[in-house]
């Protein structure tokens, strides 16, 4: 039988992201306790974790050596925040994106933990300094933001507050690796972190081009799904530029002025509420992905992400040793 760890992980908030975190930490062999404000919520989360574990097993994507049954034996739930946090070495908060709520919640979490517990938030938009400044143990706080769904998208970005201890970032980085994630470190806070700064840059230009009539909604989506996204699945944008010439320096010599010209032509930031453009894009998207079928499309997206994760794992094993 595979060996479980004794260390406890507290999951604060058991919704879509919270129960995914529980699934991931169980893969690392940790004792996991999920907290939420009602028994109905934690019961639903428990069922969701069991479903995800069995699905990952069927896909051959379970991280670690423990069986599904052994993982579930390491999972508990509670509606008592103090019980959830008691003895935890690490707490991952995944409540809604509301600054006041997170501020109040972290004050309570801070009061229930000691100096050795790392306090992490899954927030995608709020800098950690905004809700941890007045905490007793603020040096243990940081943002640990995953890509949704984290069970298939392993990237996790770590963002420290100005007062976060470097050792806390290092320990969290190691912890993410231990549960099968692919962590990145930001050296300081920046609005949007890394994921959303890149994502929003693409979203803004896609919106601008549809707004100006240069391209249709369907075709701007194809630029990513049938083009850039495919090669970005294995190499990032700087690596692609490096390979598109004889190295990045040669790329910049050959294409740099063209890149600057195009970037300077981007135009102002859209409001995303320009009436005609919003109606057009919404109509186009609703034709392809009707609101009443969003759940089915999300499930299909997750299925496809599982297939890509399987392929990437297979290809990683086949990659020549000298690459």
Automatic annotation (TrEMBL):
Residues in 3-hydroxyacyl-CoA dehydrogenase NAD binding domain copies: 8-186
Keyword Oxidoreductase: yes
GO MF entry, a single one: NAD+ binding
Record field: transmembrane: 9-30
Ranges where the 3-hydroxyacyl-CoA dehydrogenase C-terminal domain occurs: 192-244
Keywords: Membrane, Oxidoreductase, Transmembrane, Transmembrane helix
Annotated GO biological process: fatty acid metabolic process
Family recorded in the similarity comment: Belongs to the 3-hydroxyacyl-CoA dehydrogenase family.
Name under which the protein is recorded: 3-hydroxyacyl-CoA dehydrogenase
